[in-house]
Protein 1
Amino acid sequence: MISARYETYPASIDQLPFILHTGLERTSLLFSKEQNWHDNLEFQLCTAGSGTVLLNGVPHPFFPDDVISVESNMIHYTFTETQLTYACLIVRTDFCHQMGFDYHQLAFTPRIRDSR
């Protein structure tokens, strides 16, 4: 079984209201050793290849142009048996608080497929 860890993203007044990671790569040999969860909202966009995203243990196929929505405190894990490239947008909780946005009350469709 894969272990899980809680991730934190420190608040910062001078930073953008989100964190954007592009060009993230996974292969059968290059992968995270742990699942993770955090208070922040997260959106993953598959840009090449294919894989799977586990959301609270439920597998969701991940193909180019798919967006995976990771709700607050949802345990998630992104992996592939071949090769996968994706981008990850994490919305900062301090920004949501400043805007009076209760992100804990949101529920998203886990997987969005749209070529646009």
Protein 2
Amino acid sequence: MDVGTQALASLVVARAFVPRASWRAWAVIVVAGTIANVDFFSSMMSPGAYLEWHRTVAHSIVVSLIVSVGLAVAYRFVMHDRFEEKT
């Protein structure tokens, strides 16, 4: 699946499961759904680099957990600051 299709699929899943979420939450879900395809950029270097890096480190469970925790912390930080501004 290419990056654009995966981003669209992530947006559809976000809209289906959390329809009342803010656009920031949807943005985080789309980024989390497409971050594994960062190895796509290796195809711009050379075919050998693409074959070496495609679906390796970026598709591992460890990287997925690290990225998910990082995005969750960033989202909580942004939304916490926004909540404090309203009160």
